[in-house]
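Before surveying the methods themselves, it helps to consider a single example record, giving the amino acid sequence and backbone structure tokens:
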Amino acid sequence: MNWDYFKIIFIPVIVVTFIRVLFGANIFENFSSVMSLNFFITVPFVLGALMIYLSKEKDKPSYTYRIFFPWVGVCFFVAVTIAFQIEGWACWIMITPLFLLFSSLGGLFGGYIKSRKRDRLNISLVILLPFLIAPIEKSIKTQKQVFKTFTSIRIHSTKEKIWENVTSVKRIGSNEEHSKLTKFLGFPMPVEAVLDKNEIGGFRKAVFEKGLIFNETVTDYSDFNKMSFEIKANTYDIPSTTLDEHILIGGEYFDMLNGTYVLKKISENEYDLILYSNFSLNTTFNFYAGLWGEWIMKDIQNNILQVIKNRSEV
């Protein structure tokens, strides 16, 4: 292998992989965290800056090169962390946009350093940047933020038939799945949901693939009109291969809280079925994680509503 090629790509990738391992180590848990805005910004920034600083380009690399060449390093970093099971595919789909953006900014800065006669002190400070900022962000107390996801669908059927499919969802066949985003991310798909009694205090067990189960308790109930329920995931019984630790439901960062079905009559045998749910996030980047959380929850809810619609209109 050409040494220059190794130096330009693999050395920066090795450096940021080492930073990732340190950030995820238990001995550093009071100092740093992978689930931090600092990690998502400074690590790709370091990667981009190092790649351009070490590049074979002239003292003043083109801006196109500075912006886009670091993306090659991001691809290698993603491949390494997935191959060694350091990070999961779903996490990377969500944070890659940030990595591409800040690796480009790092590339621009690396090009600036390179044009300043290879200032080694500056590039050394860049490498230390994640560790300099980590304790500052760690000292910031995070607060749980609740997000509401609202979805609805128009159904042409009787209220009795619709409600029967709402309260208990029989086993969903693979040909009934309409989810796109969650399936692409590898999240467990819904299998079935069974309610033991149609009243407040009723217990509803919602089963998903890969051992994910939600235990739901009915908190508000009105026949053919409304059903609300609290949600508790079997957090500690979920197999480690089901969800990445960073997006574990009921874990440190993400949790499901409650859901509500509302059936609204539009005309004779025409109804709007509304489903909304609340989930919470506890990170320093809720503004970004919330966007993904809402997209994923809407995808899951739309899939369930579509199943209910198809079964009710038969």
